[in-house]
Protein: adp-glucose phosphorylase
Amino acid sequence: MSSQGQNTGRRPELRHDPVANRWVIFSPARAKRPTDFKSKSPQNSNPGDNSSCPFCIGNEHECAPEIFRVPSDPNWKLRVIENLYPALSRNIEGPCEEKEDMGVPARAIAGFGFHDVVIENPVHSVHLCDMEARDIGQVLLAYKKRIQQIASVESIKYVQVFKNHGASAGASMSHSHSQLLALPIIPSAVSARFEGMNEYFKKTGKCSLCEVQAKELLIDESTHFISIVPFAATYPFEMWIIPRAHSSHFHEFDCEKMVELGGLLKLMLRKMSLQLNNPPFNFMIQTSPLQVKESELSYAHWFLQIVPQLSGAGGFEMGSGCYINPVFPEDAAKVLREVNLPVAG
Structure:
């Protein structure tokens, strides 16, 4: 049966994402059935014994300097360290002044910033989705604590928290870890997201994420969070976890709710692994710039984005900034809902 035959009755559609403020093309003729859309290169489990891994307990001396650990004794559960190969340097002194006289119509500033690693657990064979909800909550609290520390540095404008799982998703180490990159600028994708949220607010007087109620897009929910496939998902089986209550900054969110968020994150990662053949993936905490005006808080709403690596960007995507997604979000949400797992505790 052809791809078109498997998607009888579904025509291509363009959807506008009011959060990212961009269009996405949904083209079901380019894919198999949603239930067959599995990773062709699953991430292998970490080997149980890896004595040479610097992230394992006992090898702390092989790592870059430590920022903090939890708990603060030799039997730690997580550590936050400097990245041994940082994208930006925390050692550049002085303000980041722009350079413009370079013979080209462009601007440049000094590469000041912070690039940290969160080692999520001391055991090499344990992935994030294997951990208890309370321990994942501790990882989330470590992000919160580190962002709060960095926020006191005036020249830092934005902190991106992200996790790369699997080599094809950008992970250079197989031991479970995530990263924070603090920047002296606001990245263009963050600005576009902020502007998209603002545009929706100006038209409706409402926050675009507070308004999400579509039952067909819902995967699961808890007391304070919902998990959905976004209406105009950029990537196949992309998932968002959104706080129900309006909240602009992840690092200002209630500590008491982090274990609940950890449980829902664990559930989404397990559903993705079971349904999509344990794919490499990325997750990102999409929060607001550190310095925002009081009026901007009305439409800025943070969320956690999970993207399984099932398809790569081609020339059209790179050239246009418009993505083609072969799986309609309603179909992806149904497939993920039907993975029968208990809510993680």
In short: The two ends are 42 Å apart (CA to CA). DSSP finds six helices and 13 strands in the chain.
